[in-house]
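Pasting as-is:
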Amino acid sequence: MRLLLDTQMLLWALNDDPKLTLQARKAIRDAQDRIVSSVSIWEISIKRSIGKLRIEGDPIRFARAAGCAPLSVTWSHGDIAGALPAHHSDPFDRLLIAQAQSEGLTILTADRAFWQYDVDLI
């Protein structure tokens, strides 16, 4: 399985948060490919800079150390995100969903809004 961690899952993994379930930990451990989108790094950086997020550690360094591959945003991802049904207004999440659809990825998320989209989820 090619697994795309959403931003919250990346943060929970980074901080070894107990909210990261055993199922999520197993999915991360067993994934053929662990992927972190530039969207998640961007979201973390923005929220950190405006004071909405305080985290320990560097998410890029953590993702690399965990063997995660980066995923950049393409024009196609942007186009798909713009065409998604309006179930969810968060632009970061919409881009993650578009990337997963375009690249054939499974998203690891705790966000119930993702379940309204045609995308593989854990």
